[in-house]
Design brief:
alpha+beta; 16 helices; seven-stranded mixed sheet; FAD/NAD(P)-binding domain; 3 domains; D-Amino Acid Oxidase, Chain A, domain 2; single chain
Length: 585
């Protein structure tokens, strides 16, 4: 990997630090502790309703969604190379985030930031045995046939035996026709691996249907992931694909294009305009300060203590407090006094998270056949997914970023940090940054060059950038300081609502119980909306409630779900659920 930049850059602050009062005390109507998607959503909805809002963010506004400029790489008036925590993906089933985007004004855009989204035209699944292209389609015979066609195509491309493909199709149909009562009461408690009976079938079935889809979708291990979560997301992705190809389904569902990406780095296209708009509405931002303590008196928070990197402390007093930080931070903040006021918050300790971080490869020329959509390397050791950003960004990369050599950016998400790779035989957590880059590059080449065309070659590579949230210490395993919540079997019971038992404490993060049921920007946005509605209720405000977008499922299954609810309460299995046939000797 000689000749790469290969340095971990420092994240740039997304907004200038606000001037703080010299007395070390700040009063505000609502304090939002965390400036990621959830926190910014809270600020947006409350500001529109006339609330005074102050947002505290320890790192950079935008959270995991922000862009991270690679320090000192821009020359000749160009901006630094654009790094990121991981590429941004806006599936068609997102409703809340697109609604927010439409309300962020951008000069020349009739629909605000939403017009900065670009529709992908194709998807590529890569297997050890070859590649399979996916294009949006809808089988007029119905949703069942559409699902069957998609699963069969994936199964055949990955060499899964036909009888096992048929069984997996049946399990998807079981979930499609399962009532909400069964999904919550039964499937939520069953790991995906067990639900699809992966132990009974071939290694190909296990790699693709047992673990590959879960790792690529949600960075979760199939042996631990909640069947309810995986099933809901799988159906949503399929229905969004069908909606893109069918105007009738699109109108019924309210879904957009199945796969959408921004036309520029995330902060340029979304976060910076968002922050500017919130400032124009009076929202105050204070960056570089981390909340260290919540003071509790009875069933109320009376103050929050925030501290900066120099140790300077500030007492923040507010009417309402919104915790908008990720679960691994929240459960530290919610100490014994807080948990004493709301014992249910102790259940956050049972929630799990895993590593899902990104690396960008800066290329001096584009691949011969760039994929205009996502690539899922379903059998790669590190569960890689990638997007060719040069195929979507509107700016000329060479004249905008870096030193003039940049022609393309291949942005990659690493979803498995604990499986040995193909170059060094080590897990990502046991590698150096240089080894992680070399390993990912090798796995990408193995997948994209499988067709016989040399899509990637070493001479294309002019640099790489690994998410600085992956921290390395000599003699120790690498640690992700910004991991991703994973929905393990049974974890729904440990996820709180946005309004806590503490009268003026609210939660706005992707671990909150949400309709989308997944750690995503959509989940964080929905949680922020729920928190605002709870504030409106408890404050006695007469302002209009925030709308909540929900997942859609075809009404054709309503009657089957009603029957299944009766069967579930009677202790009977779903009518389509049958045990797998015996595996041939």
């Amino acid at each position: 990997m000689a000749g790469t930049y290969g340095l971990l850059g420092r994240p740039a602050m997304a907004a200038a630090r606000s001037r703080l009062p010299p007395a070390g005390r700040l009063a505000t109507g609502v304090v939002v502790l965390g400036g990621g998607v959830g926190g910014l959503t809270v600020a947006h909805e409350l500001a529109e309703r006339g609330f005074e809002v102050t947002v505290f963010e320890p790192k950079a506004l935008g959270g995991k969604a922000r862009s991270i400029p690679v320090a000192s790489t821009g020359t000749g008036g160009r901006a630094d190379l654009p790094g990121e925590h991981g590429f941004r993906f806006f599936p068609g089933f997102y409703k809340n985030v697109p609604d927010t985007m439409r309300r962020i004004p951008v000069a020349g855009n009739a629909n605000g930031v939403f017009d900065n989204l670009v529709d992908a035209q194709q998807e590529l699944f890569v297997f050890d045995s070859g590649q399979m292209w996916l294009f949006p389609s809808f089988d007029q015979a119905g949703f069942a046939e559409g699902m069957r066609s998609l699963v069969t195509a994936v199964g055949l491309a990955s060499k899964v035996p036909p009888n096992e493909i048929e069984y997996f199709v049946r399990k998807m149909e079981v979930f499609q026709t399962s009532s909400d009562a069964r999904r919550v009461g039964e499937w939520e408690k069953v790991p995906w691996w067990d639900y699809v009976n992966a132990e009974r079938f071939s290694p190909e079935y296990q790699r693709v249907f047992g673990t590959g889809l879960t790792k690529d979708l949600v960075a979760a291990k199939g042996t631990k992931a909640s069947t309810r979560t995986i099933g809901l997301v799988a159906l949503a992705l399929v229905y969004a694909s069908m909606a893109q190809a069918s105007p009738q389904v699109r109108q019924q569902s309210g879904y957009g294009a199945a796969d959408r990406l921004l036309d520029a780095p995330t902060s340029e296209a979304w976060i910076d305009p968002w922050v500017a708009h919130l400032r124009s509405m009076g929202v105050r931002f204070v960056t570089g300060y981390n909340v260290s303590k919540l003071q509790v008196v009875g069933d109320r928070i009376t103050a929050a203590t925030v501290v900066n990197g120099s140790g300077a402390r500030l007492r923040v007093e507010a009417d309402h407090y919104v915790a908008a930080m990720p679960v691994e931070k929240a459960r530290i903040l919610f100490d014994e006094p807080v948990r004493g006021a709301d014992p249910s918050l102790a259940r956050l300790d049972a929630l799990e998270y895993d590593y899902m971080n990104g690396i960008q490869f800066f290329l001096g020329r584009m691949p011969a056949h760039p994929v205009k959509g996502h690539v899922a390397y379903l059998e790669s050791r590190w569960a890689l997914t990638s997007i060719d950003q040069g195929a979507f960004w509107k700016r000329n990369l060479a004249t905008t970023y870096g030193d003039g050599r940049l022609r393309d950016i291949l942005s990659v998400d690493i979803s498995d940090f604990f499986t040995p790779g193909i170059v060094y035989g080590k897990a990502a957590v046991d590698c150096t940054p240089q080894q992680i880059a070399a390993e990912c590059w090798a796995q990408l080449k193995q997948g994209l060059n499988a067709s016989g065309d040399a899509e990637l070659s070493d001479d294309m590579l002019i640099g790489w950038f690994l998410d600085p949230a992956v921290v390395f210490s000599q003699g120790r395993r690498a640690v992700s300081t910004e991991p991703l919540l994973i929905n393990t079997a049974g974890s729904l019971a440990n996820r709180p609502d946005a309004g806590t038992d503490i009268e003026n404490l609210f939660l706005a993060a992707d671990y909150v119980r949400c309709n989308v049921d997944l750690a995503t920007m959509e989940g964080a946005n929905e949680a922020g909306r729920q928190a605002v509605n709870a504030i409106l209720d408890r404050s006695g405000s007469t302002a209009a409630k925030v709308t909540l977008g929900t997942l859609w499922e075809p009404p054709q299954y309503d009657s089957a779900k009603q029957v299944d609810e009766q069967r579930y309460h009677a202790g009977q299995p779903n009518a389509l659920d049958a045990p797998p046939a015996a595996v041939p000797a």
